[in-house]
Amino acid sequence: MAEVFVPGLACLDVAIISKTRLLPIDGDLLVKVGDKVKFNTVVAMSKIPGIVHSVNVVNALSITPNEIERYMVVKNGDTVTIGQFIAESKPLFGMSWFKTRIKSPVNGTIENISSITGQVLVREPPQDVKLNAYISGVIKEVYPKSGVLVEAQASFIQGIFGIGGENFGELSCLVENPGDSLPSGAINEKVRGKVVVVGKIVTKDHIQNAIKNGVKCLIAGGVYDLDIKEILGYEIGVAITGNENIPITVVITEGFGELAIAERTFKLLKQHSGKLCAINGTTQIRAGVQRPEIIIPLESVSQNVSAPEALKELKVGSAVRVIREPYFGKIGKVTQIIDEPQVIETGSKVRIIKLTFDGTTEVIVPRSNIELI
Amino acid sequence: MEKVILATDCGSTTTKAILIELKDGVYRQTFRGESPTTVEAPFEDVTKGVLNSIKELEELSGRKILDGGTIIKPAKDNVGVDIYVSTSSAGGGLQMLVCGVVKQMTATSAQKCALGAGAIVTDVIASNDARQPYEKIDLIRKLRPDMILLSGGTDGGTINHVVELSEYIKAAKPRPRFGKTFNLPVIYAGNKDARKYVEDTLTNECDLKITENLRPKLEVENLDPARELIHELFLTHVMQQAPGYDKLLTWTDVPIMPTPAAVGLIIQKIARKLNMNVIGVDIGGATTDVFSVYEGKFNRTVSANLGMSYSISNVMKETGIENILKWVPFSADEKKVRDMVKNKMIRPTTVPQRVEDLMIEHAISREALRLAFKHHKALTGSLKGVHKERTITEFTAEDVKGEEGMDMAKVDLIVGSGGVLSHAPKRNQSAMMMVDAYEPVGSTYLAVDSIFMMPHLGVLSKRNEKAATEVFEKDCMIFLGTCISTRGRIKPGEKAFSYSFNWKGKDIKKDINMGEVHFYKVGLEEEFKINVEPYKTLDFGPGRGKPAEFNIKGGVVGLIIDARGRPLYIPPDERRIPLLTEYFKILEAYDK
User: Fold this and answer.
1) What strands, in cross-sheet order, belong to the sheet with B506-513?
2) In this prediction, does ipTM exceed 0.90?
């Protein structure tokens, strides 16, 4: 029979994780192949052009743009210091106390004197950009002037949705069971700087409290969309996230609403409680999908590396999770697979399976509403 | 002669396979299989979904089509097929990054241009925004846009900044979402004096396309050339691309066609054959494509981020949840609806199992259809290549306006296609969704693509015209019936118009009040005239208060006489639920 395709969220005990780290512009590498790096090791650095400040000289001197060159006391490429005069008016009889003088707002270089707009651009000195390793591991490859490949043996968990970018911290599990929920007061000073597992739901209060207490990341089974909207201040249209202006990363493992974290995922998180992990909420749900990730590098090397999950066949007896209402989140066992499309409650004719949650009662679920676990 | 034809359409969410067979000298569509499109990890290969949809076909038809991962050709007895054709829109929506020199000027114009082309603007980078250059470069890299629109500088003005922006793009080495051999399209629509420098900087890094400056002077905005180029590149460059697309290319007997191009061919054929003004729509998971043949002119637009799965949350964002809930005939908890929409977005291949969930999806589809049609009217109204001079104040307006040059009273036929319309459990539901979204005026025929096969037939017509035409006429286009409706509104409950017709030997003459809907199950092959006499300011097309005579065609739904007025108004208060319940009951839309 045809195979069942479901979004393949990875949950691997041991995997080889490789991360390519690239500078935004060419620079210098600070590590070499074989070097051991930690999450925040700076692996490469470059100098980027400084910020450009514009000075509206023509307005200040009440002249026209095409006259600007005559009033400038510096020229393109000159180095200037903060407060240094860069242009001045030419009063009658050269009386200096009637002069209007324009100062440079920063230390830097004169970048452009425009006779069209009348603006003078002053660029600040170059600045350092530091690139960290993101995961703790070994430098496997170097790309001259541009970056490195870091590799580590790690436990690897993909979430289904996230907000916020790269982060790292100590994993801390605040709930006993994957379906537990956390009182908002439980997030306090004790978990500052940590990556905190909060159970079946992360609420607006949790996130606000976490930000207040310097928590790096929250992991939960579900979240209310309304809370995300209120935290971000806008509605998410298409799922392209990771650049939100928030000081925290949030990773959701199951979906929207109150949903217990999948047993296997929770077990792995709990098992690694107290260890450092890297985390990234970046999500892009479209062709060429990107899901949020939690990477827990392992201290000792294991020979039992999990292979990427292969295509699984749906069979009678397969354990599945329902991924849509009315049984959203429930785990059951397949009792019958029916190939001929059947009419369901909505009147739609779809391929279905029969499954049981408790071993006795059978329910019908469209085949597209389950995932194999 | 080709006796067995296999055709697939790789949508962003679902891959649909159909089998067409020559039986007694006539081509008929015989079996259909479908499978989730496999663009996500761990598969990331569109051909896996294709093979799986074909496996479904094998199971249902009993024909062996695959030998492992190969399509068996030619057909012999009950094995193999003679040809294989495919369309694709698996690449999904369009996300663009916009770069301009001055945030409030060229960058804003560029943003309007991208939005007008139906794109989602993931960020706007300007020379004068607060971010540092390295942050901009990093952002370009991380966002993985489908396309970049680079603009800046008026013609003859400074070139430094726009060239600097092109250097940022070069430094970022932006990689597309998929396709290693696929170069990221960058459209340059800035100062013409900087073209050479931008070309020198970007030619080897990206697929650079140069078009007219979208802001040639401060007070002149010229968005259409860039907008048309975005549209064209999206269709030819982005939409078809998906992981595994290269492999699929080697399987087909004619080049893979973008889904909207294939549907466009079919809509034009319908309009030519029936000699009618036609609106066609294909509502998918990521995009909604609208086609019109109006007074002989064909137009096609792709609303790249309005759809029923990947883009469902964007529909909610664009229209507002209140506009979705106004179509739901029960009291729905906003919080739960929000979560349901987002869950569909993150798990796009799921289907509603409860009637309530189906009703919510149908409510969302009304808004997706309405917004995409609005987009179509705005774009086709303005795609005249005319440079527009606007005042600085006009530039501050956020919305993208066009001239809505289509009179709904002159539209003869609306054809719906795509999952939510073709696979609605009852055809009455599809008819209602189209009437509510398009608000037809006068007499309008309604039709749907039976099981969503217009794309397949569009591409097939390039290879086997006879097969495509025969299947289209016999198996594809389903006439739903006719909608009679009037433009304008008067007080609810007041007499709106009277109508009379002779049906099955009986004279029917009735008055209908404002806000009411009457429904007659006029079947396929039934045709008759209807006379209508509007009251007061209401207008069927010929003018306010003027009577009219229309030809009615029946269908699998029937005749809908709609006196709810135009524009449609659904009261947001306690009147909404009884009103919708009554409307759905009259049209026998839902069994529950």
Assistant:
1) B506-513, B495-503, B527-534, B548-553
2) no
Give the span between the Cα atoms of A222 and A23, in whole angstroms. Answer: 34
Which residues 375-434 in chain B show a CB within 8 A of chain A? 423, 425-426
Cβ–Cβ gap B316/A235 under 8 Å: yes
Best mutation target among B52, B339, B359, B590 (most A Cβ atoms within 10 Å) is B339
Answer whether B536's CB lies under 8 Å from B491's CB.
no
Q: Do A288 and B178 touch (CB under 8 A)?
A: yes
- The nearest alpha carbon in chain A to B425 belongs to A348
The CATH number corresponding to A11-15+152-297 among 3.90.320, 3.50.30, 2.60.40, 3.40.50 equals 3.50.30
Q: Is A144 exposed, middle or buried (0-12, 13-18, 19+ CB in 10 A)?
A: exposed
Q: Tokens standing for A260?
A: 């217990």
Q: CATH classification of B95-238 is 3.40.50.2300, yes or no?
A: yes
- Give the tens place of pLDDT for each residue, B402-438: 345 789 999 999 999 999 999 999 999 999 999 999 9
CA distance B247 to B47: 7
Choose the weakest-confidence range: A47-61, B265-279, B475-489, B505-519.
A47-61
B268 touches chain A (CB under 8 A): no
Contacts of B185 (CB under 8 A, 6+ apart): B146, B147, B148, B206, B207, B209, B233, B237, B238
d(C-alpha B300, C-alpha B466), whole Å: 25
The type of residue at B357 is D
Assess contact for B548 and B496: CB atoms under 8 A: no
pLDDT tens string A11-32: 999 999 999 998 877 899 999 9
CATH of A68-123, one of 2.40.50.100, 2.60.40.1930, 3.40.50.720, 2.30.42.60: 2.40.50.100
